[in-house]
Amino acid sequence: MKKTFVFIGLAASAAGLSSAFAQGMEAAAPKLWNVSGTLRGFYDDNYTASNTKQSSWGMEVSPSVSANLDLQQTDIGIRYTFGMYYYFDRANTDDSSPIDYTHQADFWLDHAFDETLKLNVTDSFVVAQDPTLLTGAGAVTRVGGNNVFNRGKITLTKEWTRQFGTAIHYGNNLVVYSDKTIDSATVSQADILNRIEQNAGLDLQWQFDKETMGFIGYNFAWTRYTGNQNIVEGSSLYKSDSRNNDTHYGYVGVQHEFTPNLSGVARGGVSYVDMYNDPISASHSLAPYANISATYTFIPGSFLEGGFTQDINATDVVQPGNDGRLTQYQQSSIFYLNLTHKFDSKLTGSLVGQYAYSRYKDGAYGNQGDNTVGAGVSLNYQFNSHLFADAGYNFDELFSDIAGRSYSRNRVYIGLGANY
User: Fold this and answer.
1) In a domain, 8, yes or no
2) Domain that residue 232 falls in
3) Distance, CA of 85 to CA of 87 (rounded, Å)
4) How many structural domains are present in the chain?
5) pLDDT (tens digit, 0 to 9) for every residue of the chain, 420 residues total?
6) 19, part of any domain
7) Buried/exposed code over 229-260 (b: 16+ C-beta within 10 A; e: otherwise)
């Protein structure tokens, strides 16, 4: 339930796009294993994702291997994607290396114990530097080194009767930045953002008819910051765990299939945040919670999906205000849209967009915020069942009330890929 959002680079990175097309090809021709790879050239006019622009042309190599085992009651899959990004102009800067290496491992399992009891397990493990690849990791700018983000979820659903069912779920997110402070005079992203986020909850579900299901649920989330360092320069009062919090969610929702091609789900409620470890004074707050999405498939291979989310999320801004309170988190409102269209058997296009407004809770910038816009367009041409070409453009811009935080970023790429 509790999510952390990274708004930079909403449009998928080159590695993400290759994975998506590879998955699409696997879906078209399921088999036990699949190997794919891409070779691309790119230009990034702000690879640090900051207000101090540094640009570079570059090359990307990204192989991927996956396996899927489909048994009678169990579906198990695993995929590993490696990325190597060489920035030509970064070799002349203070960066230790012009090369970034990324690793992503995904695992999924679906098991039906019987017709009424089903288990779903998913996990995604990422090692990267660019925040667009560390989806959900919470940083604004690029952080060098092997930064880790892991997101796992387990859901157990049970149909007790033809109308009534339950869903028990547990989630675990791990964030570990590698730039940990080696002296007490500076503060790093690791000091501020390293954390474990966990949540557990229960949904009570009622099947009104074949197309409509309603539900009511509760979720408890707890966030523990693990940096174990000072997070405000010049003060020993504020530690990493000063922003530990517990959050209670209550919500109601409905899932409805309007037509065989159009479906949607909406849930809304409230979150109660307990900031029990604030060094000045423990405090509580209420915040709205919502998650709305809809998907329309207008022809096979072509679909439109969009939605809105409202939730709290971690932030790298911590500066205390005049009352001594830290910035604890952000309240974020996010609108997103994704259009994928299959023009013919060979050419597929994608257009994605997102707008987010994130308001800071407490601290020096309390009730101020960030506006973030992201957009991307891409084309994929399938020469045959094994070879494809793709090209794309991604745009991101952050408008912040905090001086020196705003930035813009443009990226273009073109390349070839193979799938077997």
Assistant:
1) no
2) 14-419
3) 6
4) 1
5) 433 333 333 333 333 333 333 334 344 445 789 999 999 999 999 998 888 899 999 999 999 999 999 998 999 999 999 999 999 988 665 556 899 999 999 999 999 999 999 999 999 999 998 877 765 545 668 888 899 999 999 999 999 999 999 999 999 999 999 887 766 668 998 999 999 999 999 999 999 999 999 999 999 999 999 999 999 988 889 999 999 999 999 999 999 999 999 999 999 999 999 999 999 988 999 999 999 999 999 999 999 999 999 999 999 999 999 999 999 999 999 999 999 999 999 999 999 999 999 999 999 999 899 999 999 999 999 999 999 999 999 999 999 999 999 999 999 999 999 999
6) yes
7) bbbbeeeeebbbbbbbbbbebebebebbeeee
Question: Which amino acid, 236?
Answer: S
Q: What is the CATH number of the domain that holds 241?
A: 2.40.160
- Is the pTM here over 0.85, yes or no? yes
Q: How far lies 332's CA from each of 86, 287, 335, 358, 386, in Å?
A: 34, 10, 10, 4, 41
Residue 39 lies in a domain: yes
What is the enclosing helix (H) or strand (E) of 192?
helix 189-193
Write the burial class of residue 1 (CB in 10 Å: 0-12 exposed, 13-18 middle, 19+ buried): buried
Helix-then-strand count for the chain, H and E: 2, 18
Residue 109 lies inside a defined structural domain of this protein: yes
Collapsing DSSP states into helix, strand and coil, what is residue 21? helix
For 234, residues 6+ apart whose C-beta sits below 8 A from its C-beta are none
Question: What 3-state class would DSSP assign to 83?
Answer: strand
Burial class (CB in 10 A: 0-12, 13-18, 19+), 284: exposed
